[in-house]
Write the structure tokens for this entry.
Amino acid sequence: MRLGKDLVAAAATPVVLGILAEGESYGYAILQRIADLSGGELEWSDGMLYPLLHRLERLGHVDSEWRQSPGGRARKHYRLSVQGASTLADQRRQWSVIGGVLDQVWPGGPDDRQPRLALGLG
Amino acid sequence: MTTEQAHTLDELVASWRSWMERRDALSVRDVDELESHLRDRVDSLTAAGFADDEAFLIAVKRLGGIDDLSREYAAEHSGRLWKQLVLDDSARSGDGEAATSAVPFLHRANGLAVALALGVGAGIAVKATELLTGEPELVVRNIAVLVLPFLAAWFAWLRRPPVATLIGVAAAFAVVTLALNLYPFDGGSSTVTFATQNSATAVLATIGSIVALWLVTGIVEAGGVWQSDRTRMDFLRFSGEWLVYFVLIAIVGGALSGLTIAVFASIQVEIMPFIGEWVLPCGAAGAVLVAAWLVGAKQRVIENIAPVLTKVFTPLFTLMMLALIVAAVMQWNLVDGSRDLLIAFDLVLVVVVALLVYSISARDPAIPPGWFDRLQVLMLAAALVVDGIVLVAMVARTGEFGWSANKTASLGLNLILLTNLAWAAWLQVGFVRRRVPFGTIERWQTGFLPIYLGWAGIIVLAFPPVFGFV
């Protein structure tokens, strides 16, 4: 299954912010984490992550810093800023609204959520 | 075997880097970040059993198409598509100056500190001379001698020419200084305006000294290698860009001064004399150095503007001259024109030569002749016809009125430029017909620099005694 392009683009910001909320990280590690979390389903060209990170930095959601890895390789590390944390919380609320709506209009999805949906409907 | 493979990977990465760095939207730091990613990816793939070159190909493929990627970067960093003058050396690359943090203070921002110090020095030199002698017209006559040594010093600092070159240039400056100040020019004592008071030979000597010392300064700029047509063309490029920046600085400086005067006038503070006596002379002298610094600082960043102006004005100027020919033929009144006709047409020819030189300076020699080259043939032909008419008329009239210093100087310049343009037109026709290589046209123009220098030198050194200092 391939996720739609627009959906990936929309999900990219909250996913990246969410991963950075776990602790500071750098581009390659962020992509590895996304691949692990989504089982390889949520994917885009590796390079595209960086313009996104730069945009988040310009908006003030993340801070960055160049550091040497233990192996001597220079890496640009990104860290969630205070403002980024509140943006993430905001995005999280928005996504849960959408998730809640979708759960209600799609009764009996492929992964057997009948009981929970019934609970939600009730 | 493993070291050889590692070497290959570094080579692959290096060639990938040079490819990426050509994209305007990606800064060097961006490519650093992508390289770090690429190497991480390659490491994990080789750990999974791929060979280095295979891993590299996969990693590059996974980064995404370079066009898509640079479009994404451009969307985020749209400002980068507008080339900016960056004073921070850390963003520079490919300059041989790999060490970013170890740039000594004087070399930072392309030597801005040195340029500013020399600019202040030039301003002080102008102002100190005026205060010490109390004769403003003396400052005006010596303006090249006062300001251009600082420009020469700037180039000497930048290019480190051989000592012999510096001695030769210093000697030229000394000779001109002595000529300008020891010749007993008529008039010009304790009067403020110079144009009416200084004798014609003094004014000519002033103009000649500016041209001559500018070209001599070019020898320092060339690092002493003044015989090479490459360095001569580089100095011509520099001169064009310098003029553009100087004029821009002058316009903005003038506007700012006007605004300052107006603002202070509104609170009843009269600062006009201060602006006129201090800011203007010091600012103009300093701007010579700042403009020179700007040309060097933006050289790799912004496209040369003089050739762009050339492209715009060549068609218009050609039209103007064709209209002039038509008007002259209809009325035949050029012959009865004013006394300054020859000087005006010297300026026309100077503009034509400049239009030609600056289009040459930016032309890719490999491109075959096109419509613009044909247009230049037309421009040169029109200039030759116009100047032929004027020259015949003026020589006839000079026979009546005799040879003044002004007439002789402008006639000499006219003949030099006419010779230049006549042969340049012939070469241009040959180039359009693909008989003459482009390099010949270029060499013909750069070969004229010593001739200009010679004529300017004659006007400074020989004209005043020959014409009795009047």
In short: The mean pLDDT of chain B is 84. DSSP finds 19 helices and no strands in chain B. Residues 121-298 of chain B form one domain.
